Amino acid sequence: MTESARRRNAPAIIKRVLQPFPALTGNLEADAVAFGALWRRLAEALARLPRKPQRSAAQADEARELLEAGRASRERFLRRHARAVYDALTERRTRFLRADELCRAAARAFPGLVPDEAALAREAALPLAEKDGLELDQGIFLAHVLADPVAGAHLCHAMLLPLRDSAGHLQALDATGVLELPGARIERRGKASVVTMVNPRHLNAEDETTLAGFETAVDVALLDPTTQVCVLRGAPVGHPKYAGRRLFGAGINLTHLYRGRIPFLWYLIRDLGVVNKLYRGLASAEEPPDEHSVEKLWIAAVEGFAIGGHCQLLLVMDHVIATEDAYLTLPARKEGIIPGAANLRLARHVGARLARAAILAERRIDCASPEGRLLCDRIVSPGEMDAEIERTVERLASSGLVSAASNRRAFRAAEEPLDVFRRYMAVYAREQAHCHFSPALVANLERHWNAAARRP
Hints:
- The protein is an alpha/beta fold.
- Helix content is 52%, strand content 10%.
- It has 2 domains: 157 residues, Up-down Bundle (Methane Monooxygenase Hydroxylase, Chain G, domain 1), CATH 1.20.58; 251 residues, 2-enoyl-CoA Hydratase, Chain A, domain 1, CATH 3.90.226.10.
- Strands 1-2-3-4-5-7-10 form a 7-stranded mixed β-sheet, sandwiched between helices.
- Helix 10 links the parallel strand 3 and strand 4.
- Helix 7 crosses helix 8, helix 8 crosses helix 19 and helix 9 packs across helix 10.
- The radius of gyration is 23 Å and the shape is globular.
- The two termini are 40 Å apart.
- The model has no long low-confidence stretch (mean pLDDT 94).
């Protein structure tokens, strides 16, 4: 429905809130004031309604109309002003802001464009089913930023820089050779930096407690001048079914997702940040990421299974070792979300038809099968994994790594230039926001995961 049609068909109370509806002038300052007044009226009208679970059917319709009117107006504003907004927030691209920092800055400089800290705090306390989805406006904002070739490239560059505290953590690693972080551990083993994903109670699933530590560990592994190769592995888990076995990982923590603990920006920070760093290395502020990066070869050691987000990680690895009993799945359709950048990358490995079957029809891929060998370089028995990791590290390191970064950049130039990734992420930001706040996601989690009965 067009914006004008929406206003004509809106209930009388919504029409009153929408009047006067601002006309775009093309001047950022004037349009920000006019649209900001509209967004304030919409927010005030929404705040007058009961909380989502207590709304009548009529009140639920009113809330939906208010939210949709706000989103449509933000889309309109950003189609005209996305780059100007980005330039204002980054001082004409002289400052690098990560996606979360950019959204916080936008909330302060352009009130109503994205939710502010108070609104986010209110929503964060609620289960997913009870949220109004205010964070969806962050998805709209970032989609427009990423869709702009200049602003989007600058944001991708910002997300590839080392985290501010990573250099300090590298110094801490120097003391003992081991660094424990929330959700991850890094240790030096000869020529290798071994990054272990750690969330044993949840089968090494990724969630809001693990992301920052995981990205820091990847930064430190890449920055460490004493190692030549990196290894990614899952920790032993505590679940009785697996009796202390190592598991690569179970994907996103669906229980935390259902409980509303995983914010929308988690998806963008993960795929623009740590996953893209595994693929592209670390950038510097002074040079374009496609021209210069700090890179090492990455080896993945898959034991048990790599589900969802953990399967996505294999698509950016240089070498994958898997045990003969391990399997891979991308159950995104059953969950109701987009599996990160798998839609961009999986077909390069297995072909378009199998990629669709894996993403749209939950096709399981056994690592030792012909299809699994398209993703896995080496299949070993479970008892041989440690020795195979050592052999692979030694083989890669002893053959010389001078050209490793150069060859990785050459592969990316043919397969996935940064601009291709940027355009994909522009689509992903908007579509994943709609998926994350869809009632279908909650229903799927209750139907397929029994999420309501699980202990967080």
